[in-house]
Known about the structure:
About 20% of the residues lie in helices and about 30% in strands. It is an alpha+beta fold. Strands 2-3-1-15-7-10-11-12 form an 8-stranded mixed sheet. Strand 2 and strand 3 (about 45-50) form a beta hairpin.
Amino acid sequence: MLPLYHTLCILGSIAYISTLVCAVQQNVIFAINAGGDAHVDSNGIKYARDPLMGKVGTESDYGKQLLMINRVKPNDELLYQTERYHHDTFGYDLPVAGDGEYVLILKFCEVYFNAPNMKVFDVLLNNRHMVVSDLDIFSLVGKGTAHDEYVYFTVSRGRLYFKEEDSEIRGGKVKLEFLKGYKDNPKINAIVLIKGYDETTIPKLTPVASEQTVQEQHVDPPIGDVFVDGDAQTDGKAKQRKTSGPKQPNPYSLDESSMMLPVFIAIGAFIPLLFCLCRL
Length: 280
């Protein structure tokens, strides 16, 4: 059995996590799985079926071809595998629930392109506020990796405040638009709107894994072998370029007797010739 202290720590952690999950669930005003059906994520957030199904743009589950989505739990991968895109600007109407602080979480994942600068677009809120500019998902995190954009704003007396700008809210809803850019089509994978948030309760993705610098050991290549500079590595070891011919022996490795042998042969051949010339 676990010691009482460890047991209390585990129970405390479970209670803390449950509190965070409940706080998130209670404060969610709007959540949809763009391009897909209803889904409940690992935080207990209930995502509704995309209300634009069959109406605007194209719903796609092309992302399901990927084996996995990085930075998320397996249960949350579906939110980044389905998406809605359109060849023109499109958007959603988000309900607001009175005055207060809000955070809008926009979920993205590049599941098609294999290079940056292929899909670039902007996101506009309430017809006025450019909340995301020149979004290039691949450039930020690469392919098959979840990326969330967090948009913080305030609602007070019928107006929306974002940074130093404000705009009027009409009909209790704000417009969220994905603007057609000069590179391919705008898209969205999922949307969550939370009111009365706390930084400790906002669901966050795991950090992007940074590239680990490989410390290569310096090894002097043998004579005749050249290490290829810049070639891809296999199993962490640099490949070697094949030499153009057999290795040449080191002339300094020969002993002195071997070097004098040709001289002795030449002298031996010259003595009989000199004897014959003297008898003529």
